[in-house]
UniProtKB/TrEMBL annotation:
Domain of life: Bacteria
Annotated pathway: Cofactor biosynthesis; adenosylcobalamin biosynthesis; adenosylcobalamin from cob(II)yrinate a,c-diamide: step 2/7
Source organism of this protein record: Paenibacillus artemisiicola
EC number: 2.5.1.17
Keyword Transferase: yes
Protein name per Swiss-Prot or TrEMBL: Corrinoid adenosyltransferase
High-level lineage: Bacteria, Bacillati, Bacillota, Bacilli, Bacillales
Pfam families in the record: Cob_adeno_trans
Amino acid sequence: MKLYTRTGDGGQTSVKGGRVRKDDVRVEAYGTIDELNSFVGLAAAMAAAREGLGALSAELLEIQQELFDCGSDLAFRDPAGRELKLTADAAARLEGWIDAHDAAAPAITRFILPGGSDVAAQLHVCRTACRRAERRAVTLSAEVEVPAPVMVYLNRLSDYFFAAARAANAMLGVTDTEYVRSAEVFRKRDS
């Protein structure tokens, strides 16, 4: 099988149930999720190369699988009556990981700048790409029904990347850099 098909040379692509323009809002939504997945792959590779971050790398690999599920679920021209791949369990698992990563990082009271270690910086790239993917899914939802588990997952996932970035910095002994012009905007954790 050849990698190129030539069927998209005129600016159209296939979705499950037909063909659409390559700049269709649906293609933009799942294409942005695909872009996010590439950033996550880089973060996973970076984490795998660092001692003590193997569990984080494994989480990111699971997230990559779930992002493919999200893209697949969005690729249906008409998802009604279709068995979708992403379930609510995926967002619930993210919440557990978020809580664990949050507990592993020092408390914050101010906004922080994206960065610190290379792994954390890449996770912040993932966070911002995830927010963009979520915005594209919201735009799509104005035209067609978007599966609720996908919307919830993308919303939770950006929180995951924030918590994971902070935990990665903590595990690597790198201090988050506070935004110096920030007021204290986060409540301190209960002791």
